[in-house]
Amino acid sequence: MKKKILIKKAANKGAAMGLAMAMAIAAAGPFNLGQAGLSEVYAAEGDTDISTMPLPLETPAYVRSVYTNEWVTPEQAALRPIAIMMPTDKTAQPSYGISHAKVLYEIMEEGEISRQMAIIDDWAGLSQIGNVRSCRAYYIPEATEWDALLVHFGGVVYMKDRITAPDINNITGTAQYGVGGGAPGSGAFFRTTDKKAPHNAYTSAAGIINACAELGYSTAVRPEYYNAKHFTFAEGVNTLEQYGAAAATANTIDLSKIFTYTKSSFVYNPDDGLYYKSLHGKPQTDALNGEQLKFANVIVQNTKWTKLDAKGYLYFQNYDITEDGYYFTKGKCIHVTWQKTDDYSPTVYYDDFGNEIQLNEGKTYIAIAQKGREVIYK
To answer: Which of 125, 155, 256, 291 has the highest local Cβ count within 10 Å?
Structure first.
């Protein structure tokens, strides 16, 4: 007689995750990519030490994440990320899935209210993502750095030329640039009754995958656009001690003079070496899991800007080789400069000696700050 024993078997089926696989993922619902490939293995009755048996287990080949430098499967690394617009409005909190953002941008919009763009690479198992809000033209160069699927709920006329370009793959719940242009992939969105519009629009992995199938978008990173070299990560832990007195203490980061409405801020936790984010004076959390957002790296990127019209719509100069900012990690801060030369090239950050900074493994928050507004840290 034999008894059946279930043993986890890792699957290694190549680097590309195409549309067919992604659709199967969506149909299966929320899951962990690491659980894929369970196998039933039978052991003879009487065998007591399964670890000594010659089982046909495969060892997956892991790769470093371009977003965090953490180990991920090749399938995960090949999945195209989403760049999804999320609100900072007090009544809209908390958002679903925002803790999955490996890189989180926050940029000011008209009316002294900021907005967030979450770069999420492991979206394939999420049944609710958002709330989803409208986009602005200056988010697009940040999204293209990652060859992301841009997910938003409308926008403004200043986006018109870029959002409709052939290389941009966007999914929107309403007119894509505010006054027209269609709504590609609008079926990907749904509304809930727990919040009032415009804060109750959401999407899901299944919705995104169906939209990609409808629009002919690739769910795998596109080799002709994707830049596998982005951040430079440290080997080991970068404490910034190598900068001596030039590395200032930064146990708290106060962005209230940059984002006057949200008053975004961070507190460093030496126990895990991460910065915990607050919004409107309270911990910013994810509605999916209740977790407070936390980051290994915080970057403030001072950026030239101007107002475009009487409505207060803004312009940010995303491409530059002369501006500066600050890099925060492990309770310390250094002054940096940054450069970005075109849409699909990464923004690169340098220390004052001209060396590219080395980020710590983990998530990164980037504040695109209006030049002239002060960050406070101590």
So the answer is: 155
